[in-house]
Design brief:
By secondary structure, this protein is mainly alpha-helical. 43% of the residues lie in helices and 4% in strands. It has a domain of 152 residues. Helix 5 crosses helix 6.
Length: 257
């Protein structure tokens, strides 16, 4: 006979059913175990990441240095011992001119010696011709006067030719006597070019014939000899002991080694 409650409770659902707490409450997680097996979770989409915001690069400020163009790299062969940066040497006066500057006195004596070297042969030739002129004049012939005139002309021609070619021929010699006439050689001085090149026949002819002989002759004629005197006295007050014809020919007179 049923009691007043009149209903049968299923087993395990009553107050004393296993799994219930003392007050009839179900513990946490009981619903998940009572639900039975759960279906596996489906594939999850990867998290969406926001692309970084495009920020324009900062422009160069007023203090930003500007790139300077670089010099092209050296592409030639490397010298033995490796490449070294060339060091600029300080400028030195007369770097291309060997020896010390010659003094005015030595230049004057050398010029006088060269004059004697050229003049003595001319006097010898004139003396030989003069003897013939005297003999012809003693015979009372009119040939004597013509011989005298011829002797003077020949002597002058020989003197001019020898004096013109004497200096270039002696100064064009190679080696230690380059730039020396016989007079300069005796005094231990020589003529050098400011470019450092050796003295050749053409440059010696330019200096001795064109400038000194013809050029100074014209200047001396126009100035009544004053220009010629100034030219040869100019080394006395010039810092490089150069005469005016040295400036015109780009030469200096130095002591020989």
């Amino acid at each position: 006979m049923e009691s007043g409650h009149g209903r049968d409770q299923p087993p395990g659902s009553g107050p004393g059913a296993p799994g219930d707490g003392p007050d009839g409450e179900r513990p946490a997680g009981a619903d998940a175990t009572d639900r039975g097996p759960q279906a596996p979770a489906g594939p999850q989409s990867p998290p969406v990441t926001q692309p970084p915001s495009a920020v324009p690069p900062p422009g160069p400020g007023p203090e930003a240095p500007t790139a300077s163009p670089q010099a092209p790299a050296y592409g030639g062969p490397v010298p033995p011992g490796g490449w070294t940066q060339p060091v600029a040497s300080p400028q030195q006066p007369f770097a291309a001119v060997p020896g010390q500057l010659a003094g005015w006195g030595r230049r004057l004596v050398a010029t006088l010696l060269d004059g004697l070297i050229v003049g003595v042969p001319a006097l010898i030739i004139m003396g030989a011709l003069g003897i013939g002129v005297v003999d012809a004049s003693a015979s009372g012939s009119d040939v004597g006067l013509l011989a005298l005139i011829g002797a003077i002309l020949v002597t002058a021609l020989v003197f001019v030719v020898v004096s013109l070619i004497y200096a270039p021929l002696t100064m064009m010699r190679k080696g230690e006597h380059n730039g020396q006439t016989l007079g300069k050689q005796a005094l231990g001085i020589r003529v050098v070019r400011t470019s450092g090149e050796s003295m050749d026949f053409l440059w010696a002819a330019l200096r001795e014939i064109v400038i000194k002989s013809f050029g100074l002759s014209v200047v001396s004629f126009l100035t009544l000899g004053i220009g010629l005197l100034i030219n040869y006295l100019w080394p006395l007050w010039d810092d490089e002991n150069r005469a005016l014809h040295d400036f015109a020919a780009s030469t200096r007179v130095v002591t020989a080694h």
